[in-house]
Amino acid sequence: MKRGLGLGLAVISFGVAVGFMTTQPVVSQAGTTVRPTPTAVRGSWFQEQDLKYRVKITKSTFVFGGGYYASKKWHPLDQQSYQVSRKVKQGTCTWSKQTNANGYYTVKIKNGKFLVKAKSGILTVKQYRHGKDVNGYPLYFHHIKNAAAVLSGDTK
């Protein structure tokens, strides 16, 4: 009976320890815990036009803006970068805990917000400033395999 109780406690302790290791929260510069970005939307997403646009989402950052690839290196133009934080300040953002009725996450920034949704390999983004839709329509971004080579014109 003691052996069974000890084995049961060992299994429970191991399960709790593994749970703590796999769910590591993001810690801001101030040392406070913040909600990380949803894994479904992480990665680099591209929209090709004359000026290429990119959305790069990591566990702790949200980057939105234009630029171009040259020699397999991204050169940003008019790019906005936000650190995920507990409170919205200049240069920071917060992510909503859940999606709204249309499946969008809300990324709050100072004086505005982004609505972000990933579905079927397409990232849809709506941008709002001072309560007004900036573009008047959603923007669509795609994952591009080997983006640095493809968008640099180096497809060898």
Task: Please characterize this protein's 3D structure.
The strands form 2 sheets. Strands 3, 4, 5, 6, 7, 8, 9, 10, 11 and 12 form a 10-stranded mixed β-sheet that branches. β1 (26-27) and β2 (33-34) form a beta hairpin. The chain has a single domain, classed as Lipocalin. It has 156 residues and is an alpha+beta fold. Helix content is 17%, strand content 44%.
What top-tier CATH class fits best?
Answer: Mainly Beta
Count of distinct strands: 12
Low-confidence stretches: 4-26
How are helices and strands ordered from N to C?
HEEEEEEEEEEEEH
How much beta, percentage-wise?
35-45%
Radius of gyration: 20 Å
Which range best describes the helical content: under 10%, 10-25%, 25-40%, 40-55%, 55-70% or over 70%? 10-25%
CATH architecture: Beta Barrel
Count of folded domains? 1
Name the features.
156 residues; alpha+beta; Lipocalin; 12 strands; 44% strand
